[in-house]
Structures are given as structure tokens and as C-alpha cells.
Target: protein-synthesizing GTPase
Amino acid sequence: KPKSDVTEKKHCNVGTIGHVDHGKTTLTAAITKVLAKDGLANYVSYDEIDKAPEEKARGITINAAHVGYSTKLRHYAHTDCPGHADYVRNMISGASQMDAAILVVAADDGPMPQTREHLLLAKQVGIRYVLVFINKADIVNDEIIELVEIEMRELLSDFGYDSDGAPLICGSALRALQGDPSEHGVPSVQRLLDAMDEYIPRIVRDVTSPFLMPIDNAFTVPGRGTVVVGTIKRGVMKRNDDADLMGFGYNIKTTLSDIQIFRKSVPEAIAGDNVGVLLRGMKIRSVETGMLLCAARSMKMTNHYKANIYFLTRSEGGRKKPVFSKYSQQMFSGTWNIACRIDLEPSMHMMMPGDHGEVYLTLLEDMVMTQGQPFTIRENNVTVATGIVTETLS
Ligand code: GDP
Ligand code: MG
Model:
């Protein structure tokens, strides 16, 4: 049993991504092995990780191992998937919700197609921090490693990641797993863990952007007015701030007359706080679950979005037939749903069950959706697709 008290530490969701056979699972096992020495993890063997149990998320089957470990600073929940298709399903369904990804690249291969595809998906689903582990340093010389470093920095920059600041750690997961004390062995995994502690901000909550809160619930307080309840997704709310209540085609101007946390009035509340907000002049019948309370004029409401979508296979309960443009069904996200039309890229004739790719969404009414927001498509109450918003279109 790990000795440390993980409950006192900040929690962080991470995962290994990258091309098949580049060493993701070996690295995951090596991390637990290295930390087990200090009582910060239970050692989880390669085989235990690789035979990840099947789980059902939003109707689809995902194979993913969830490994927990601690550094001196915080607790990590680490996701490793067995195959490429599992990564695609895991990331597009929003099942892992990683705060940061460890992109593993084998030095002898360099970046490969799935290296790019996983990084693209990471960007699309809104993973903000990527660290690179250049693996298999034991079988190449230093010049090769330098080349891979340059290629990886270029790749990060291609996808809009912090190409100069992102940590690039070079080592050998296999050597570390074998307990090799030389530079490419155990110390390389320790360097990766130090970089994770340092590079991933301690509070991943975004408190600098304009505030945003999805409405979970609303009720009337006699003599006072309408209170909306939710968890602030980002930003800071202050009493008397102007706000827009948006969704289902409506944009209602209002003011935050009072903010309460645990039934106590507070002058302000920040991302992560669960709050009740009294809205000036708001009628209860104007409020619908799924609307968003946003800082005044900070968000655009539209019915056009770009999304990455995965169509479930027949064996996952999905469709039997392919999907063509103008496919119309009910879309579900969070606590709300709306009629939606899906159009494929013009170059794409159809999508088969089991396919994934980018599509265009047209909602029946204007909504506010944010990048990385997961949704499902259902036909007669059966989930046939899972997706994630990648872009707001006008
Ligand atoms: P994954 O598909 O990305 O999870 O890759 P695995 O962790 O399954 O590793 C694929 C293969 O590469 C296995 O045979 C590993 O033993 C081997 N491997 C992993 N890391 C290293 C390393 O640092 N050096 C060498 N030489 N082989 C490695
Ligand atoms: Mg693996």
C-alpha cells in the first residue's frame, strides 16, 4: 500500500499517447516501478496494464487501464490504452478528460502517423499540456535523438502546442523498468515525473478567461427572484457583474445580484465552485437546463459547429448502415438535447459504423458549446455516435 496520504494532494489526470509499439505501456509500468521504491505507488506490471478491462462509456466499448500513483507533489490518475482504436474512442468520447498528455515517441522510428493523429486529437479535445518522452534512447545514438527532438518540437508547433516550453525527456522505459540506474534508465523516468510536477500547472482550473457556467438547475426564491445553480467552468464571477444567459436561441441580459456557496453569500466565486446565482429581472420560465451563464458579451451563440465524431460499430450497438450528409438526429450533451443535422466533409462520401472523423453540426437552435464539449447522437434512444466539439463556426 502506498504510504503517502493522497487525499491531501492535488489530483491530476494524465495519459500516455503515441504510435503503437513506441513504449507507452512499458513507460506506464516503469513509472509505477520507480515510484513504488518510495512507497508512492503500487507497482503495476506491463501485463496487468496491457490486459486493460473493457469498460462502457456512453454506450461504446473502451479498453483503458487506469493506473494511480503519487509524486511528492500530487496524485496522478494515468490512462493507458492498448490499441490505436481505443485511443480514438477514449479521446473522442471525452472519457478520460486528461489535463495533460505524455506523448511517447520511439527514437528509432521518430514521429509516425499515430503520433500525429493522437496529438491532433489531443488538441481537438482541449488537452492543454503535452510533455514528450523520447523513448528507446538505449538503441540509438545521440545524433538521432537530437533529430527526433527537432522533429517533435516542430510537431508540437504544428498543432499549436508550446513548442519551446514543453519538456522533452529522453530515456528508455524498458531500462527504467529493469531498474537500470544509468542516465537512460530510472533517472529518465524520474526526470519525466519532475517535469510533470513542474510543467502541468497546479491548478488546471482556468480563472483568467471570462466566466462561464452551464445551468444545472433553477428555482424561484419568493420575494427575491430566480436562482440558477451550476458549477463554474472557468473564470471568476463577482457580485453585480453583467451576464448573458444563453441557449436554445435566447440571449437574455442580466446581472448577478447575489452569489451563494453553500447557502452563504460571497462577493466572488471561481472556476470549480458550485454556486447558486440570483439573476436580476429573470423569469423562471426563461431558464432552461443546458443554458449557459456567461460574462456579458464574452460568448458567441451559433448553431454551427465542427466536431470530431465516432460512429459506433454494430457490435457496440451502433448503426448497421453508413451515414451520409444531411443525417438528422437528436444530439445529447450534458443535461440537454436538441435536434441536430450532421454533414460530412465535402470530400467524404459517407462514414461507416466504426469510422471517425471531422463533421459539421447544424443545431435546430443557437447554443453555446465550447471546444472539447462531448456529446452523443441517439436514434430512438440508442447511442449511435459519440463526439466532441472542435470548433465554433459562424
Ligand atoms: P505501446 O504499444 O506504445 O504500449 O508499446 P509497448 O510498451 O508495448 O512497447 C513495445 C515494444 O517496445 C515492447 O517489445 C517493449 O519491450 C519495447 N520497448 C519499450 N520501451 C523500450 C525501450 O526503452 N527500449 C527498447 N529497446 N525497447 C523498448
Ligand atoms: Mg500499449
The pocket of magnesium ion (ligand 2) is lined by residues 24-25, 50, 82 (CB under 6 Å). Helices lie at 24-36, 46-50, 84-92, 113-124, 142-158, 173-177, 186-199. The CA atoms of residues 62 and 89 lie 6 Å apart. The first strand starts at residue 10 and ends at 17.
